Structures are given as C-alpha cells and as structure tokens.
C-alpha cells in the first residue's frame, strides 16, 4: 500500500505522462495549457513558463487535497482527482 506522498507521486507520474507539455491549440477549449494546467482556469499562472514542479503544486493544492484523495486507495484517488480537474473538487469529492 502506498503512503500518502507516494500515492500522489504515482498519480502525478500518470497525469503528467498523459497531459504532456505546453500547448496553445485554438481547438482546445482550455486554451493555453502546460502539464494539463489551463490558462482559462488559472489566469494568474504563466502557463508557458510553468514547470512540472509548479504544476504538481497546483494539482496538490487545488485538486488532490480538496477532493480528499489522500484518504482513498491509489487508483480511486487518481480517478477522483481527474474528475476534480474536469468537474471541480466539490463535485468529485461527493
């Protein structure tokens, strides 16, 4: 069983692997993104200069903890965090 830090690290490895790096595709409804962090939802973040470490801090503080992922088994926590990113932490944590 992964402890809470390892579980988040495992989730981030998966998420960052799926999300990739910088993109500014006009067909993407999120607009400018980096590591899955969208300018549309994080207007005060310099998306182009965003590092993986900064993205992890955003995921942890705005999605992982508010959705109560630390208290869940790793695969469930990953799914709930993904839902939090797409629907909001309040809805995902229900």
Describe the biggest sheet? Answer: 2 strands, antiparallel
Shape descriptor? globular
| Residue windows where pLDDT falls under 50 for at least 5 positions | none
Proportion of residues in β-strands: under 5%
Number of helices in the DSSP assignment: 4
By DSSP, the count of extended strands is: 2
Helix content bin: 40-55%
> What gap, in angstroms, lies between the N and C termini?
24 Å
Q: What is the average of the pLDDT values?
A: 87
Structural class: mainly alpha
Could you explain how this protein is built, in words?
The chain is mainly alpha-helical and 94 residues long. Helix content is 50%, strand content 4%. It has a two-stranded antiparallel ribbon.
Provide a compact summary of the structure.
Helices cover 50% and strands 4% of the residues. By secondary structure, it is mostly helical.
Features:
94 residues; mainly alpha; two-stranded antiparallel ribbon; 4 helices; globular
Write the layout of secondary structure elements.
Elements: H1 4-19, E1 33-34, E2 37-38, H2 52-64, H3 74-87, H4 89-92
Helix pairs in contact: 1-3
């Amino acid at each position: 069983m992964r402890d809470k830090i390892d579980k988040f690290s495992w989730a981030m490895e998966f998420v960052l692997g799926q999300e990739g790096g910088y993109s500014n595709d006009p067909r993407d409804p999120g607009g400018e993104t980096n590591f899955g962090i969208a300018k549309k939802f994080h207007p005060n973040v310099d998306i182009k200069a965003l590092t993986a470490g900064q993205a992890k801090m955003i995921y942890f503080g705005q999605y992982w903890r508010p959705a109560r992922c630390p208290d869940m088994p790793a695969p469930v926590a990953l799914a709930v965090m993904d839902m939090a990113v797409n629907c909001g932490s309040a809805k995902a944590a229900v």
